[in-house]
Fold this sequence. Notes:
Layout: H1 2-12, H2 22-28, E1 32-35, E2 47-51, E3 54-57, H3 59-78, E4 83-86, H4 93-102, E5 107-108, H5 120-138, H6 147-164, E6 176-179, H7 186-194, E7 198-203, E8 214-217, H8 223-238, H9 243-256
Parallel strand pairs: 4-5, 4-6, 6-7, 7-8
Antiparallel strand pairs: 1-3, 2-3
Amino acid sequence: xxxxxxxxxxxxxxxxxxxxxxxxxxxxxxxxxxxxxxxxxxxxxxxxxxxxxxxxxxxxxxxxxxxxxxxxxxxxxxxxxxxxxxxxxxxxxxxxxxxxxxxxxxxxxxxxxxxxxxxxxxxxxxxxxxxxxxxxxxxxxxxxxxxxxxxxxxxxxxxxxxxxxxxxxxxxxxxxxxxxxxxxxxxxxxxxxxxxxxxxxxxxxxxxxxxxxxxxxxxxxxxxxxxxxxxxxxxxxxxxxxxxxxxxxxxxxxxxx
Length: 257
């Protein structure tokens, strides 16, 4: 159902070019999966073959699912929804933070804390505590402490920042999460599903794609592959206006005529 509706929305969009060049996708390495011994049976329909004991993903099917996923994201942004980006692998942390920040979306790049969704009220209190300590530091209130006490508080702030900086403005559940590695961040997916939060993900050949509401069969290890996908996601988010804003803009244009 998502696929058919999304394809129609893609066809109508004027804000973003959602066409993909096969050569660029292959160069970015989206087609390389894991070793055949690690294959998940539900990913077999997206495979094209094997090269040196490594599964090769059908790039045409990747393009099709990427198109559907971007249309789904476009729909979410149009409805002014919030997407939480989750990427805790070392090689993608900086990239995920950069893209999420550019899109003004929350993110998690440190270890996913168990209970982030299932014990959200506790997490919100920790975020408020972190923001309070940070403000005290900015206001110079830490100067009243001894050098040793101040150093201890600053270490605590740094630790809290690693965990909560990307979620500092998250006061309620996001409408969806975008997961880079479904296996590494399986807990994030599990908690999202428990709270009926939509799951968007990159699905490599070793995972169950049915755990996501919308997914892209592609390499989730190579930084070039993840970069290619996230750049497309960023392009769609930045070029999609929420319906309310678009309506106001149209009304203003009609007034000026």
